[in-house]
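Priority: medium. Attachment 1 of 2:
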């Protein structure tokens, strides 16, 4: 998603370069196309490994609870 967002913003300098007939605009356009293509491919093959499972949350909460108990003893 970030690469596709970056590709959209890379179109702005390529449009300006087109208006002023500069050659550098082609490089911006090529970079935008590559970013959009790679971003689309990565989104299509995205895995669910970034998911947050309950077990991981329980471990995190356990350490947070343990730290709070040490900070405020009864």
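Attachment 2 of 2:
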């Amino acid at each position: 998603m970030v690469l596709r967002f970056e590709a959209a913003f890379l179109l702005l300098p390529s449009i300006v370069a087109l208006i002023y007939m500069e050659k550098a605009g082609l490089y911006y356009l090529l970079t935008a196309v590559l970013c959009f293509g790679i971003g689309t491919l990565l989104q299509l093959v995205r895995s669910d490994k970034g998911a947050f499972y309950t077990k991981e949350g329980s471990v995190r909460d356990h350490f947070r609870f343990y730290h709070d108990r040490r900070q405020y003893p009864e």
